[in-house]
Amino acid sequence: VQLQASGGGLVQPGGYLRLSCAASDSINAMGWYRQAPGKQRDMVARIFSEGSTNYADSVKGRFAISRDNAKNTVYLQMNSLKLEDTAVYYCNAVRYTAWGTDNYWGQGTEVTVSS
Question: Residue 32: which residues within 8 A CB-CB, separation 6 or more?
Fold first, then answer.
């Protein structure tokens, strides 16, 4: 499975961005992780095939994840962006298999929040 992410950029604090990630094949769970310089990669939001979602506490109420199963695409709407949201955002996809799970990662898209 290949993942193609897009939508990053430079935005001022309080602004918004929408990230998109298209998978080349059907998958089960999709999500977004982010990694700031010098920090570990952390989960931002995940959405499962039936529509349930998880969010990091730091983005609850500001970010919204959604998916279009027909297009194998996941979106991350990021509102009220803060300086601390600056990071490289990675799309993740999980496929459940008979032997466990397969994880796939996109190439990363950079989000910079700066005044």
Answer: 19, 21, 43, 44, 45, 46, 65, 74, 76, 89, 90, 91, 92
